[in-house]
Design a protein that fits this description.
The protein is an all-alpha fold and 179 residues long. The protein contains 7 helices and 2 strands. The longest helix has 32 residues.
Length: 179
């Protein structure tokens, strides 16, 4: 019974409408993050921010990076989760081998990998800023690292929009309706 409930939960979480909603929520969440990073950097070019301001930006970027890593891993493993949930003995349900499901798995894997890499680079950026200055002195150079992270946040938004485009089109194109 528990296994059956978990299988249903995995299938629900990896379904097309839920993943579209998930990507839409992440996309909408990325917009204020981009605005916050942009506003911070605009002030950073003219004045030196306080340690508290730097810590806030590090926390924001690290949080966004962590969310992107988690979302990337989840999307990447869509196919694995669905196969686990659809196993009947050792056979995979026929639905999982359809053209549409194979396409959705490929798109989720590719975009998931993109989000994972972007998130990892953002986390590396915050780790560089946090590193003790006796190992790496980033004093006065944090703005370049944060600017790179702003660019990475923008790239993540494009990846999410590409995912939404590709998943959304499967509802409308004839090649996906007949399978």
């Amino acid at each position: 019974m528990i296994t059956n409930l978990l299988n249903r939960l995995f299938l629900l979480l990896t379904s097309r409408p839920v993943l579209i909603g998930f990507a839409l929520a992440l996309s909408l969440g990325a917009i204020p993050m981009l605005q916050t990073q942009w506003n911070f950097l605009q002030g950073f070019w003219t004045t030196q921010p306080t340690d508290a301001m730097l810590e806030d930006m590090e926390g924001l970027i690290d949080g966004v990076g962590g969310i992107l890593v988690a979302a990337g891993v989840f999307l990447e493993e869509r196919e694995t989760l669905r196969k686990m949930a659809h196993r009947v003995g050792e056979r995979i349900a026929a639905e999982e081998t359809s053209h549409t499901q194979e396409y959705l798995n490929e798109i989720a894997h590719q975009n998931g990998m993109g989000l994972l890499l972007v998130g990892l680079f953002m986390e590396i950026g915050t780790l560089l800023v946090k590193m003790p200055s006796k190992f790496l002195d980033t004093n006065q150079n944090e703005k370049y690292i944060f600017a790179a992270c702003l660019l990475l946040t923008g790239i993540s938004l494009f990846i999410l929009l590409d995912f939404l485009k590709d998943y959304g089109k499967t509802y409308f194109l004839a090649e996906f309706k007949q399978h």
